[in-house]
C-alpha cells in the first residue's frame, strides 16, 4: 500500500482506515475470505428490500455478501456447528473470587462526531459539549469559496437543533413516523451520508 498522508488534498477514506488499523493499531485483518483475500472492512452493496423497513447492519452485511458472492474462510465457532471444538476456559483464581462480590459494569461509549464524505468532500457533525443534551454543530470547511485558482475556501459552522433527539434510543420510531418532507435537511444528510462515527468514553476523559 502506498504511503498515506493526512495532509494530502483529498485523502481517500479507505486508505485512512487501512492506515489506522494496519500501521497505527497493527490489527490483524478482521475478514478472511474464501478467495484468500483479507480485509479490514467491507463496503456494502445491496438492493433495496421492501420487506425490510428498518434493516440492521447485520442484515445489510449478509445481503451484500450474498449479492456479491462472497464467502468467509473463517467463522466464529459455535456449539451447534458439527465441526465445533469446545475448549474449557481457564479463569484466573483472582477473578473467581472477585466475581462473588463485584460486578464488572459495561463501558458505554458516547458518540461525539460523525464524518460524512458526499461529493468527494469531508464534512462533520460534532457534539459541542458533554452529556446527552449538548448541542450539535455541522462543520463544512468548504461551504463557500472566494476567487478561483488563487482564491480560498470559506468555512462554516451551523447549529443543528434537536439532532440529539434523533440520535436517542427511540430514533427508529421517529424515523418511521416522519416522512422525508418533514425531516430537517441536516438529519437527512446525517443518516444518508454518515461514513465514520467517532466515540469516546466520558469516564476516561476525566483523566486527561
Oligomer: single chain
Task: Enumerate the strands of the largest sheet in spatial order, edge to edge or round the barrel.
Answer: 6-5-4-3-7
Going by helix content, strand content and strand pairing, the class is alpha+beta
Give the overall silhouette: globular
How many beta-strand runs? 7
| Radius of gyration (Å) | 22 Å
Mean pLDDT: 79
Biggest pleated sheet: 5 strands, antiparallel
Quickly count the helices.
6
Question: Ends: how far apart?
Answer: 34 Å
Q: What is the count of distinct domains? A: 2
What helical percentage do the residues reach?
10-25%
The string of secondary-structure elements, in order, is HEEHHEEEEHHHE
Q: What portion of the residues fall into strands of 2 or more residues?
A: 15-25%
Low-pLDDT stretches are none
Protein name: EOG090X03LH
Keywords: Cytoplasm
Give the gist of this structure.
With 208 residues, the protein is of the alpha+beta class. The chain has helices at residues 13-24, 57-68, 93-98, 163-166, 171-177, 185-193; strands spanning 31-32, 38-39, 110-116, 123-127, 136-146, 152-160, 194-200. The strands form two sheets. A five-stranded antiparallel β-sheet has the order 6-5-4-3-7. It has a two-stranded antiparallel sheet with strand order 1-2.
Amino acid at each position: 500500500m502506498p504511503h498515506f498522508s493526512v495532509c494530502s488534498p483529498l485523502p481517500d477514506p479507505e486508505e485512512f482506515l487501512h492506515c489506522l488499523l494496519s500501521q497505527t493499531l497493527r490489527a490483524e485483518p478482521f475478514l478472511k475470505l474464501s478467495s484468500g483475500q483479507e480485509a479490514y472492512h467491507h463496503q456494502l452493496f445491496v438492493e433495496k428490500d421492501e420487506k425490510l423497513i428498518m434493516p440492521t447492519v447485520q442484515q445489510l452485511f449478509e445481503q451484500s455478501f450474498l449479492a456479491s458472492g462472497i464467502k468467509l474462510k473463517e467463522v466464529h465457532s459455535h456449539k451447534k456447528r458439527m465441526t465445533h471444538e469446545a475448549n474449557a476456559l481457564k479463569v484466573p483464581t483472582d477473578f473467581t473470587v472477585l466475581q462473588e462480590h463485584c460486578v464488572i459494569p459495561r463501558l458505554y461509549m458516547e458518540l461525539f462526531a460523525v464524518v460524512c464524505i458526499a461529493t468527494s468532500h469531508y464534512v462533520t457533525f460534532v457534539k459541542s459539549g458533554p452529556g446527552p443534551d449538548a448541542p450539535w454543530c455541522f462543520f463544512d470547511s468548504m461551504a463557500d469559496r472566494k476567487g478561483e485558482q488563487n482564491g480560498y475556501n470559506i468555512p462554516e459552522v451551523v447549529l443543528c437543533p434537536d439532532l440529539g433527539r434523533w440520535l436517542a434510543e427511540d430514533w427508529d420510531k421517529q424515523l418511521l413516523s416522519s416522512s422525508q418532507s418533514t425531516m430537517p435537511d441536516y438529519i437527512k444528510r446525517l443518516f444518508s451520508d454518515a461514513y465514520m462515527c467517532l466515540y469516546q468514553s466520558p469516564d476516561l476523559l476525566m483523566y486527561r
